[in-house]
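Researcher: Next entry in the queue.
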Amino acid sequence: MERAKVTMEFLFRASPTILYQFLTTPSCLIRWFCDGVDIQGDSYIFIWNGTAQIADLVDDIEEERLRFLWEDAEYDNEYLEFRISTSPVTDETILEIIDFCDADEIEDQKQLWKTQIERLRQETGG
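Model: Structure for this entry, 126 residues:
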């Protein structure tokens, strides 16, 4: 199956500092992203529906970028990345997400992220 890179951008009223906290702190991650998480060094053990997936944090620039590599990923060049920036025009915080999925699942993947981001927006106050 052909793989596709999916890139999405979302605007937030929350500051980059708050958004970064919600992307890196276990108590915040479980409020919008996963059912549970344990951090051991640079490894994040995410739990969804009782199943654990391990992601290694390979790039961390505070309040700017996080990149995770999934330990059980089929393809070495795939990752999950969160980029945080500020719009120079509106002063809103921009969260860009880069993820990968099967080419025939792009719309489902986008919908999943939209749902997750709505939860994140509610938790961060916008």
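Model: The first strand starts at residue 3 and ends at 12.
Researcher: Noted, moving on.
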